[in-house]
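Re: the 110-residue chain
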Amino acid sequence: MKTIILIIGLLMTGIILKASEPEVIFPDNVKKHISSINVYPEQAFKYNIEGYVDVVFKVTEKGLLKVEEYFGTDQTLSDYVLESLSDVRMCPYDLSVGKKYKVRYSFNLL
């Protein structure tokens, strides 16, 4: 009986964790705005900094992107992405408002 309860508890935990994970597929209006950040940061280019920044954000009812969490391999890159996302203004629609989205910005010198 304890085993059955343990298995059910583990399954429920997995379902709860899965439900709260951010989406990676973006509606077109969100995709257009987040892909507009495509310039290599000048400071990072100057010092040959490469890396990535993972960002989890949601769209507010006012059309702003609210960053929920982020992780970057370099603070210069993280600051650039966060500042760029704070400048994004969009026209939200019901499907995008309140949902969490995850995106990775990669910065590689050739």
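The radius of gyration is 18 Å.
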